[in-house]
Design a protein that fits this description.
elongated; Phage tail protein beta-alpha-beta fold; 327 residues; 7 helices; 3-stranded mixed sheet; alpha+beta
Amino acid sequence: MQSLGKNTINRVIAETASKEEALEVIDWFSSTIEGQQCLSDLLDRDAYLMEGDPDLGKSFTPLQSDLLYTRISKNIHQNRIRKNLLRVAAILLPVLLISGLGFYLNRQTDLFSETTYSEVYVPRGEDARIFFQDGTEVFLNADTRIRYPNKFGLRKREVYLDGEAYFNVGFNKNRPFVVHAQHTETEVSGTSFNVNAYSDNNTIEVVLDEGRTSFHVHQNSYPMLPGQKIEYDKSTGRTTLRNLINPSNASLWKKNILHFYDTPLADVLKVLEREFKVQFRVQTPAALDYSYTLTTKQAGIENVLKELQKISPVKFVSEGDTVTVSL
């Protein structure tokens, strides 16, 4: 069934539509995904008002039913001429809205059942892209694990990250999206941002591309604006906020591009181990004194190592999946 125009729906509510149009709207609400989404938008405000009711999730109270019925039918009874249409709309629409509200809440939130979680792990040498039920798009870098509820909660949309991910969050100011990562929280309503939070790294980094973000750690909150980067040192507890000239460089990995800026060799090796499933054996510890600035397309580990050797006197010798580092 094709989408119904907003004017048609409004005419049914305002009792100026024909009986056929009223039945068409009811059928669209109940039999199409788009109609159910439209119905959920109409009911969203009522859902939040009723959230605090202790009976929610068990059954609708008479008061709740009356409120929903009144909202839909209060204008219908003003016009006594269209008795047949009034009878259809007054009886079917309130019942449909009450049933739809329960269906929507049960499908979109975890109010009516125990929260269950799913988990995705992306192995080293790979990446992935997933979508959540609210429309949020997530890119996952190599060696990344994300845990998320099968149904987001009514107040918040919360996920748990160990690794690196880029989020394009579907906007909903009433249900903020929260990324938990090793005792930190990154909270947004709808925006695009990169989170680097590997458990074996000493820092957690968040770079904001669009919208607004708030970073929380140890009961402190740090608002962020587009183009800013926040870095939290897990060992010292220090949090640093800075402006970036090219914030999109932080998420170039989504395009299979490696980017290092004055990065110590030890950190470079960690990235390469994840991206190419290799192991580095440092034969000369003094090699770790060097840092690298490099942007290059990932075209195999051998090509990347050749690029690195052009920058410093450090040598890389590959033997299978092991790379020896020396001067």
